[in-house]
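Chain entry —
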Amino acid sequence: MTHDVTNQVPPLTGHDVSADRALLEGLAREGADWSTGELHRLGTLAGSERAQEWGRLANENPPVLRTHDRYGNRVDEVEFHPAWHELMSVAVANGMHATPWTSARPGAHVARAAKFFVWSQVEAGHGCPISMTYAAVAALRHSPALCAEWEPLLASRTYDFGLRPAAGKRGVLAGMAMTEKQGGSDVRANTTRAEPLADGTFAITGHKWFNSAPMCDVFLVLAQAPGGLSCFLLPRVLPDGTRNAIRLMRLKDKLGNRSNASAEVEYERAIAFPVGEEGRGVRTIIEMVNMTRLDCVIGSAAGMRYGLAQALHHARHRRVFGRELIDQPLMRNVLADLALESEAATTLMLRLAGATDRAVHGDAGEGLFRRAALAAAKYWVCKRGPAHAAEALECLGGNGYVEESQLPRLFRESPLNGVWEGSGNVAALDLMRVLTREPEAAEAFFAEVATAGDRRVADAAERVQKTIASAGEADARRGAEEMTLLLQASLLVRHAPAAVADAFCASRLSGEWGRAFGTLPQGVDSSAVLDSLVITGR
């Protein structure tokens, strides 16, 4: 009897990952309920044992750089495990990359965000090239001729891996290379040079400290042209079939995001095409950055949902002290607190996706709201990811600390979205600049918050506006945090079950909250919060 295995939790597989009330309601609210069928099919695949195995294998078999072939010829290839290609094929076939840009249907960017949220819960690393490709189109539209040439290939639903001229491929993917050794976030300190050539192209010479997704077909690159820092489109293979002069020096040995390749690269007069006006590279590429920032928020929200699902599943199947773990009052407090954070993040990311969709189609008011709300959310939601992942892991006890639970992978991944596309300080300072330089964006933000028609939200909004009015640079993080919590509270009051909204307002707005998850105040109905969730499994 001592060798019988009892009281161990079965794996959470065989379920629909998209069976998420907050996700489905937000999808309909933001005008994309027409995509529900596709989302459920994707969610069923995401919850399958087969897809979960792809995620495990892609992380346990990270990419390998091959700089030369057996004869000593430079090849600069990145090899991936077949599981990576399975993940990528599904993502591209479901239009999680650039497909929304070719659709005039309202809600296309929202539908794409929901799919990215669901599929990221299988494996987060492969989301990088998907996100880069999605974001690249926004920058390319500064050069209509280039966009006309590349957008159909970027938006193709065919995953066509391998280095060949773009004209001979059924689909391509895009990466990005901005930061350098001496610059980091200060991209204006970049030293990479762009020399104009007689045919209108430029020869790029220099290096990049971070090249996101170096296995892609084409990259947006910043370099110093005669007219100042400029943006360029740099393909890996030139139209005549020759390899462009891009040298992959090494792949980064990262904390998490192990399945995805990130590289240091050098250019030796690599041929590139100008995107946007010369000397306005930051202004051009910021369109791409804003799109990838949205994906950082989506990715963090997806990680929270995954961690919550695993913690709840464990608590429902594990018996402790004579009853299920989920029936223990303190554990219910912890789980309900995790659920609040997850739902607030999910609801906010869908609102931002809706604002993006409407802004792309010309809604100036939504564009103003998004400029303030996205910077704030990038700071706070991504900042909450690691704390949420750590608490979800702890709900499984020692089992959560073991790789087989997949929660160590989640924990290692969780800081990434807070670092990429502008770390916490950069995002918070960007928000302060928006509020200072574009007061109409602040007006749009607080007008959105006010639609809740709730005294708790109104009182908090008054406090936050006073904080912002007196904030200096050193106060930027507090401002971003308070603005995000305020917006999340407003959204939950309007759209979530009353128990969820009340618990969020009592803890996040009224200060009746401790310094760790599981410190919801007395009077919060944890059971009602948990009962509002939809998470199923074996």
